Amino acid sequence: MLNFAANLSFLFTDLPFLDRFVAAKNAGFDSVEYLFPYDYPAKRIRETLEDCGLEQALFNASAGDWDAGDRGLAAVVGRESEFKASIEQAISYAEVLGNRRVHIMSGLADFSDPNAFETYLQNICWAADQLKGSDINALIEPINSRDMPGYFLTTPEQAAEAIQLVSRDNLKMQFDLYHAQIMCGDLTTRLERYWPMVDHVQIASVPNRNEPSNGEINYPYLFNWLDEQGYQGFIGCEYRPRTTTLEGLGWLSEYKRC
Questions:
Q1: Closest CA relative to residue 127, chosen from 179, 72, 45
Q2: How many structural domains compose the chain?
Q3: Which of 34, 54, 117, 251 has the most CB within a 10 Å radius?
């Protein structure tokens, strides 16, 4: 049985953040993820997880000043000290919340810029080493250029290149099927090619980033493929409900009945 994690930055957003945990559990989820936890004390989130009987799947290291346009720091030349502080902060939260995966956003930079590329490799190498001390995997995720123009990492091929060059056993790929379909498609072939690197999967429909029950991606086929691989990790539900979260969860009920 696959483990679907409710992404609380996208689902149940009509509720205050900490109330979304209860809603996720009541809706049938056993795990959660979200973008950033840093507006709340780690201990308070941990208590909420325990009260609800939920497992923390992952969260992101700080992306910088999101409201000012930052989308990560790893590839941004000149902000290395901020990047290192963000990793230290993420470790301090993960050690309390119990998750063993932290997503590190690369930021807005040109993948072909040698300065940005070298900065990225050095930062990711340093971060992976720091996270390994707490038995945490560092995840990097390609994000499509339509939703996030100018993002440094946009394809699974780029992520695989970085993982190979950094050569750390706890540096893994976060494979978002929504982003990958927009940028390159051929999802099963790419999953097969990069499967040893994949440590987290996320889903949403294409083109509108809604529930995985509609759109151009054949999710029943892909869920079956993941089952056949014996995938034991999380599948993050990072989509925008077309109406309300609960009204759109029929796909999850159907899957659990199979």
A1: 72
A2: 1
A3: 34
